[in-house]
Write a structure and sequence with these properties.
By secondary structure, the chain is of the alpha+beta class. Helices cover 39% and strands 11% of the residues. Strands 8-7-6-5-9 form a five-stranded antiparallel beta sheet. Strands 1-4 form a two-stranded antiparallel ribbon. The protein has a two-stranded antiparallel ribbon with strand order 2-3. The two termini are 25 Å apart. It binds fe (ii) ion.
């Protein structure tokens, strides 16, 4: 099996010939389109875009040994995706045929087991920090988003010390938070621009429809189903569908609201690039802070890396570094490896500094927009 390390995420618009894929690119359904290790060529860009691939992971040639770890294993993530994809397709079929609508025979067992596996894994490493964003295709945005919201919600639940039973319930509810979208017309769901007031009113009904589907199917608890109904309610009021506020909103729904917004902000879409995690976190605590339970938001922030492992950052002294380790207790100040000087020349001897211990140096901004060139002196050292 090909093992590659040192990967970072690049939106398709910034992919350049010669970059090597750090992770295989999969089509909807899971079939591999391009294998990890493939050298990208201009001719591959069109097929990638055609399949709705918005970003890929490429190898960072300047720091090939630095690999971001996902908070969950590939097996757990793909188990959730596979079982949830099946549930979505069964529900979509049921909605396409009104006569079957409320008689769909759905076996929820495998999905409950997939959520239980996720909970077990997240309970093992209580220091995990989110470094990787899921790469999803346009067709599977809702699927990828639901799986991510489920993972982020359970992660926040573990940090809030919920018990296993609560975490499983929370995970299932979060996974199904947007289940009502199976009943929303696809042309509205996939509309890239701003929705008209009528379209938005219809879109909002995914909350009540979702709760109704879950109640009619009867396969999740009342508490899990309440997430579908309440995940667009806001802490200070003004949300939908009921306009609840504060503790009136069930705690699982308050958790899901944070995970839902964070993932939607950072996700790459075909028509726009996802926000860097640092900017998304800033939006959550500034412009959007009245949407969320402040205590829960405070617990959530240390769980996500503003500058994920493998990403490039410019430091306040002008040098460029790659993030090599992020710890929950100080996610803003990771350990970095300085690889380029302020003049952008490769350092003969890259060195690491722990920014938590060096208050004089801080991260000024992400360096992802600039494609790293392999400095000739590093090439020479390689040979
Ligand atoms: Fe939603």
């Amino acid at each position: 099996m090909l093992v590659v390390t040192g990967v970072y995420r690049v939106p398709i618009s910034e992919v350049r010939s010669g970059m090597r894929l750090g992770k295989s690119v999969r089509m909807p359904g899971g079939r591999i389109l391009l294998q990890a290790g493939t050298e990208l060529k201009a001719a591959y860009l069109e097929p990638l875009k055609r399949h709705g691939i918005a970003a890929v992971y490429v190898i960072n040639e300047l720091a090939p040994d630095v690999e971001p770890a996902d908070v969950v294993s590939d097996e757990v993530r793909s188990g959730l995706s596979t079982d949830f994809r099946q549930l979505l397709s069964q529900l979509s079929d049921a909605f396409a045929d009104a006569s079957k609508r409320y008689r769909a025979q759905i076996n929820i067992g495998p999905l409950k087991q997939a959520v239980a596996n996720l909970v077990d894994e997240l309970l093992v490493d209580r220091n995990a920090v989110v470094n990787l964003q899921d790469i999803r295709t346009a067709d599977e945005y809702t699927l990828g988003h639901s799986v991510n919201v489920c993972i982020l919600s359970v992660l926040l639940g573990t940090a809030l010390d919920y018990n296993v039973g609560e975490l499983r319930d929370l995970g299932l509810g979060a996974l199904m938070h947007d289940i009502g979208k199976v009943a929303i017309p696809p042309e509205i769901l996939r509309k890239p621009g701003v929705l008209t007031p009528e379209e938005f009113a219809l879109m909002k009904t995914h909350t009540t429809l979702g709760a109704q589907i879950l109640r009619d199917q009867g396969f999740v608890s009342y508490t899990a189903a309440s997430v579908a109904l309440q995940h667009h309610e806001r802490w200070e009021g003004g949300g939908y569908p009921l306009g609840l506020s504060g503790d009136q909103i069930f705690k699982f729904s308050r958790i899901c609201a944070i995970a839902d917004c964070y993932d939607a902000l950072t996700a790459d879409r075909v028509y726009r690039k996802g926000m860097p995690p640092a900017r998304a976190r800033q939006l959550l605590v500034e412009e959007m802070r009245h949407f969320f339970d402040p205590e829960m938001l405070g617990t959530f922030l240390p769980l996500t890396a503003p500058y994920p492992v493998g990403s490039m950052v410019e430091l306040t002294d002008g040098q460029v570094a790659v993030v090599v380790a992020v710890e929950r207790r100080n996610v803003e100040c990771p350990r970095v490896r300085v690889i380029l000087g302020a003049d952008r020349a490769g350092l003969a001897e890259p060195y690491e500094i722990d920014l938590a211990l060096h208050s004089a140096t801080e991260i000024a901004r992400p360096f992802q927009e600039i494609v790293p060139e392999l400095p000739p002196d590093l090439l020479a050292a390689d040979g």
